[in-house]
Amino acid sequence: MSSSLSSLLSSFQNLTVRMGATAVLRCEVLRASGAVQWVKDGLLLGPQRSLPGFPRYSMIGNPKKGQYHLQIERAELEDDAPYECQAGQSESSRAIISSEVWINVQIPPSKPYFEVDMTEPWVAGKKYTVTCIAPDAKPKAEVVLYKDGVELTGAESFTMSGSKDKLLNTHTEVTYYSLSATPLSLSLSPHPPFIEGLERDEVKAGRMLTLVCVSQGGNPLATLHWTKNGEVLSTSWDEDIEARRSRSVLYLHVTREDNQAVLCCESVNLVSLAPLSLSRKITVLFEPSEVVVLGSFRAIEGKELNLCCYTTSSNPPVQIRWWLGFRELNTTVVTMAEGDNGGMTTMSNMTHRVSREENGLPLTCEAFNKGTRFSKTQTTNLNIYYPPLKVWLEVPPPGVPLRSGSKVHLVCFSSGGNPTGTLTWLKDGKTVPEALRQVPFDKGVSRELVLILKPSDNMATYRCDARNEARKVLSAQTKLMVHFPAVSLKIISNQRELHRGQTISLECVSGSSNPKANISWSLGPFRLKGVDQAPRRAEFGGVSVRSTLSLTLASQHNNQRVICQAYSSLLAEGANTFYELNVLYPPEFSPEQPKQVQVVEDDMATIPLLVSANPAEVSCIWLHRREKLVKERDPRYHWIEDSSLEIMNVTRKDAGIYTVQCSNDEGTNHTSVSLDILYAPSVKAAKDPVHVNLGETADLICVADANPITSGMFTWKWLVRGEANMEKGEEVQDEESGLLTIHKVTRADAGRYQCTVNNGIAPSASVDVRLVVHFKPELQKGAQWRKVASRGDGTSSAEVLCQAEGVPRVDFSWAKNGLPIDFANPRYEERTVREGYFHTSTVTVVNVSAAMDYAVFTCTARNSLGEDTVDIQLVSTNHPDPPSSFRQVSVGHDSVTLEWLPGFDGGLQQQFRIRYRWARSDSFLYVDVFPPRATSFTVTGLSPVTTYNFSVNALNAMGESGYADNNAVLTITTEGQFDTESATGLPTYLIILLTAIFGVLLALNSLGWFLGLKRKRRWEMLWKNLHSPFRSSQSTVSNSNRYESREKVNAAAQRTLLIDSGSETDSNIYERYAGESSHYYYPTSDYWPPLHPLTEETHRLGEIKAQAVDYSNCCSCNLCPKYRNIFIILSSFFFFFFFFFFFFFFTIL
User: Between 20 and 30 A from 604 (CA), which of 641, 670, 725, 957?
Assistant: First the structure.
């Protein structure tokens, strides 16, 4: 055998498996070339791995290794069979078949049961036979009998066929001697059942049957169930233990579907080998469910009518009769056939020739059965068709010309016919779908056709056909004459490619027109002259004309249209068409191509390219400074779709001439564009700082770098304390330079000047130029600079300051009492500090001696422009000098702001106090200035439109000074306070309220006058008793205090009084008023309470130290007691006067 032949490698052996297990038959084929499949008991299973038709069968294993094992899952009895593995024949190998192998399926027995005679009671001592049956086993079952747990001997067994082939029932019998009359508890099969309530097999549909199934005997009693045609109807039953029977009742509603149905009652118990049953077939009598007439009740006059009357299944079958009106039709053929549910169907075919007179008569099919007394009919009226009688038209008169585009109405009429005719409009034999809907009228119909006339309507035949189901057509027709312009227009050219400078020949051909049209040519706004040809006959009964044109082409003609018009003067209408010129030409730049592009630096520059060419595929390159621009050279370059150049973040280096060269298949052209880069200015000073002598002319110059250079782009500001102040000097611009000229320079002109350049492109630029003015030294010579104080006891030091302003550098020299100071002496030290224009020289005198150092120190400051001298006196510490230049800063309705220059502080820290009063005040008010060293202060709490006298002096620890400016008094009148609420236009409720308030005030004033008079008398008596002791205290205070006892002072100073120790220049202290404390009070700079001047008038009875008040001199409301009564009378008069005045005033408003 050749090595390429197939061969079997597996050894095949029989296989035994239990039911439900998986069986695997192995088969391995070496070099399988044909199909490999299994054979079961002579049946081929197929070569597929899944084996269709055998869901539990499959071939497993690796086919590449020749493994074709048969696997059977959930083995059953039907799998017990012989199997073969076959390899099919192929071109290289013959067929091979394995040896036969068996699968032996072992099946356990079903539930065993006993058979024993239980019809009569058992007799003690008598022999009985008990049989145990183990059914449906493979192989046969082994049976062992036990009684009360003891194995019974002597049993004999034999086998019988089971319920299926290959299954065995094992019967085991044993002989038993009864020991008592009580039988064994054995299971017995019941007797076959019987049915009650079904006396006849024929039952009428719709009847309700009550059937009873009874089963006798059995242990246990039988279970019963009903079936109909094998389907379970009922599974309920009841048991009668005494009668030893089971009983099941079935209620059945009989329908036609129950005809020939088999009703079955089955009984079974645990020991029944098979269910016992009784079956009865019933015959159901039923009528047909419907009568159907098949065929059309419509017919054409004189034609035969063929109808079929059909009844559905019935039992027994019915008979059929036909009626037309009251006349029976006998031309029928009747057939019967088997129907549903065992019944019979009946069919009657009727033929009848109809006439026009039978239209509308009822045609009836009657189905009846005399035996069941059944009758049912189906009636429909006949519809007999006959053709219309007449057709006519309403149309324009023939031969009258109609214009194309106008609307024409064609109306078709038809009368008679059944049904009325259907009208159809046709044009030259073709249906016109645009006709309007058909409209009925008395004994006929009409249909209108609305035409918008077209050239094709000229001499066209319009026909109206009237037809109906009678299939006879009546017609009427007409013809129209239509005038129309050219139906088509086209331009023909034999030249495919057009080039600039070439001459093109065009021919315009007009389609049919009626009457003849005239052809004209135009190109844009220009008319062209063509050559006309002879006319020809054309479609729709019209004529066709044509004309030729020659044209020399230029690039401007590209994409332009040459228009041809065919015009009819009779119709005043024409047709137009155009021929679009596609002229090939090399690139040409638009007249609108910019020659210069301006862009702001750092923005994106776009140099547009306005070029046209045909063909449009243009290749362009850009050159800058004779170098080709490519993106690789500079990534900022970008070309958009139209070849325009974009430059990102342009700089001023990108400015210049850009040349673009463009070419296409027709040639090359180029142009140039200037790129102007605009950028924000930068500026620098031509010279900084600028030095100039006092009184000379100063020139400040700044130079800008900017594009564009605009007129007026330079502005100058004088910076004072870092902020722009007023403009100074004369400003001049010379191209990129800005000049500020200041004539006759003063010291005030010195400082920083800012030159700002703004050429319209943000941001603007600025530069500062410092102007330095040279001047000779000027020393500080105010009062505070001319004295220095020290104790002179040889233990303290003194600093003598000299401060000068001057440019250039200032040097100092010192003299004492006219003699230069020797700074080699350790008692004298000098140091100089320079800050800008200010130069300060300080001489420190160590261990000041009154005898040696109380002298005049002379300070001399000099530079190249001159010198200045000041004398400074070193004196002993003392009270301060008076302030000077006391003046008003501002005034309001309730406040005044004052300012002064401080005097020499006496060598100690000084503070200031303001004294003021008004004309009718009894004393001065004093306000301590906070912070103490401030030289301006606002006095608040003043009355409007009141004149005040103000003074200011200084105080230190050693005393106080005189008042400023030689005790000068500053007189100031406060402003008036304007009430913004007008008295006019007050609402009524406010008028009433004000009137009531005035009335209440008037009443209170009268009451106050009365009570005040009584109180005054009581106080006068009390005063007389207390007058003597207070008068001596008042005298003491008056002698020790230079201020009056009723003089008012600032309440914020804790009600302090200035106690004079002898003179104003002597030492002064603050003493707490009313003897509350004896310590001194010095206001500090950190504490700054609100300063509201208050009068010192706190008097309570029993305060022995209180300031004495002389009630004999006291005046109420600033009036003396003797005038009080007169004042009260006058005030009452004025209250009444103003009350009535305001009442009438507001009433009028």
Answer: 670
For β-strands 422-427 and 407-415, DSSP reports them as unpaired
| pLDDT: which is higher, 171 or 113 | 171
- Which of 831, 853, 876 is where one domain is finished? 876
Strands 925-928, 911-918: parallel, antiparallel or unpaired by DSSP? antiparallel
CATH number at residue 668: 2.60.40.10
In this structure, the answer to whether residues 215 and 269 fall within a common structural domain is yes
Select from 952, 1000, 996, 987 the least CA-distant residue to 972.
952
Task: Assess if residue 702 is contained within a domain.
Answer: yes
Tokens standing for residue 1101:
């009875």
Per-residue tokens: 1041: 């205090």
The string of pLDDT tens digits covering residues 79-137 is 999 999 988 887 777 888 888 899 999 998 887 877 877 667 777 778 888 888 888 89
Bridge partners for 427 per DSSP: 430, 462
The overall average pLDDT reported for the chain is: 82
3-class SS string, 599-651: EECCCCEEECCCEEEECCCCEEEEEECCEECCCCCCCCEEECCCCCEEECCCC
pTM passes above 0.70: no
Is 493 in the same domain as 577? yes
Contact 169, 159 (CB under 8 A): yes
Cβ neighbourhood burial of 1138 (10 Å; 0-12, 13-18, 19+): middle
Cα distances (Å, whole numbers) of residue 306 to 293, 327, 350, 766: 11, 17, 6, 116
Residues 242 and 320 in one domain: no
pLDDT for 1073:
33
Residue 896 lies in a domain: no
785 in the same domain as 870:
yes
Backbone angles phi and psi of 1023, in degrees to 5: -65, -40
Q: Strand, coil or helix: what is 541?
A: helix
- Domain count of the chain? 9
Number of C-alpha atoms within 13 angstroms, CB side, residue 305? 26
Chain centre to alpha carbon of residue 574:
57
* Structure-token match 């002579």, residue found: 42
Q: Are 821 and 829 in contact (CB under 8 A)?
A: no
| Interatomic CA distance for residues 317 and 299, integer angstroms | 31
Q: Looking at the structure, tell me whether residues 240 and 261 fall in a common domain.
A: yes
Of 393, 398, 356, 193, whose CA–CA distance to 278 is shortest? Answer: 193
- The Cα 16–Cα 3 span in angstroms is 35
Q: How far apart are CA 265 and CA 279, in angstroms?
A: 7
Are 114 and 271 spatial neighbours (Cβ–Cβ below 8 Å)? yes
Q: Are residues 625 and 657 in the same domain?
A: yes
Cα distances (angstroms) measured from residue 65 to each of 93, 152, 575, 740: 18, 59, 87, 110
Q: Across 876-918, where does the E strand assignment appear? A: 884-891, 896-901, 911-918
Q: State whether 197 and 137 are in the same domain.
A: no
Co-location of 236 and 253 in the same domain: yes
Closest CA to 628 of 617, 618, 636, 620: 620
User: Is 535 within the bounds of a domain?
Assistant: yes
Per-position b or e across 127-155, b if 16+ CB within 10 A of its CB = ebebebbbbbbbebbebebeeeeeeeeeb
Range of the domain at 415: 390-483
Intra-chain end-to-end CA distance of the chain, in Å: 146
Tokens standing for residue 904: 């020499």
Domain stops at, among 851, 876, 901: 876
Domain assignment of residue 673, yes or no: yes
HSE, side-chain direction, 13 A CA sphere, residue 1146: 17
In whole angstroms, give the CA distance from residue 767 to residue 755: 5
Interval 774-783 mean pLDDT? 90
Separation of alpha carbons 293 and 312, rounded Å: 11
**Structural tokens at position 428:** 């030259």
